[in-house]
Amino acid sequence: MADQPVFDPKKIELQQLGPVMGLLEQFNLPPKAISFIRRNQRALVLAISVGVILAIAASAYTTYRDYRADRAASALDAALVAKQDRRAMLEKVVQEYGSTPSGLWARIELALLDEKEGQRGQAIERFVAINAGLGVGSPLKPLVLTKLSGLYESEQQFDKAVPLVTELAALEGFSPAAYRTLGRLQEQMGKKEEAAAMYGKYLELTGGQPGQGQADPARDMVQSRLNQLKK
């Protein structure tokens, strides 16, 4: 018996092929969405490409920034522990990594080094420049204000120290010490009423602190100065 063909062309009925389903249709998107995508295909591809490029650029910048920050921190550490050429190494950190936190701290270290070496004028110039670049919320603000105002006081430039200490008094946690310093500055400027007012604020702020019943040399000294001013 002859083998029968599996597919008999005579028995196959030709059927009309339906429309070819596109990729968008396979996602079961609404017809309106499919039409919109096809009408704006070129613009959408361009927008996606730009987004991808921006994401890659942002990632590359973050990686580069972190790399610079690590290099700057290493350079600053080396400068701080150096026994020789410390100033030159700090200046190199400032020059190469001035925009990083390590660069900022290197500038502060240079100002402190100037002060230690008796170059108060140079130290003041550095701290003035540093202070101008710090925001109000910077954690370094209290340190810079304290050092700069102290340098002005040591140079008997009390009128320049007062605004800085006043700014320090507005920062949380620094008010008592700042008011005591303001009292001392005003007293040295011969402004007894202003000095008494500042000493009074200091005593008011420190009156309710823990250990009030114990001897407090600082409060006793301020109270003594206040009594002298009121005579």
Report on the structure:
The protein has 231 residues and is mostly helical. The chain folds into two domains: 29-108, no CATH class; 118-206, Alpha Horseshoe (Serine Threonine Protein Phosphatase 5, Tetratricopeptide repeat). The chain contains eleven helices and no strands. The protein has helices spanning 23-26, 31-39, 41-81, 86-97, 101-116, 120-132, 141-154, 158-169, 175-188, 192-206, 217-229. Helix 3 runs parallel beside helix 5, helix 7 (141-154) packs antiparallel against helix 8 and helix 8 (158-169) packs antiparallel against helix 9. The chain is elongated, with a radius of gyration of 36 Å. The chain starts with 22 loop residues before the first helix and ends with a helix.
Structural class: mainly alpha
The secondary-structure element order is: HHHHHHHHHHH
User: Using DSSP, what is the number of strands?
Assistant: 0
- Terminal CA distance reads 139 Å
- For the report, how would you describe the main beta sheet? none
Shape: elongated
Total number of distinct structural domains: 2
Give the integer mean of the pLDDT values: 84
Sequence stretches where pLDDT stays below 50 over 5 or more residues? none
Q: Radius of gyration in whole Å, from Cα?
A: 36 Å
% residues in beta strands: under 5%
- For the record, the CATH architecture of the largest domain stands as Alpha Horseshoe
What proportion of the residues is helical, as a percent range?
A: over 70%
Q: How many alpha or pi helices?
A: 11
Top CATH class of the largest domain: Mainly Alpha
CATH topology of the largest domain: Serine Threonine Protein Phosphatase 5, Tetratricopeptide repeat
Let me know the CATH homologous superfamily of the largest domain: Tetratricopeptide repeat domain
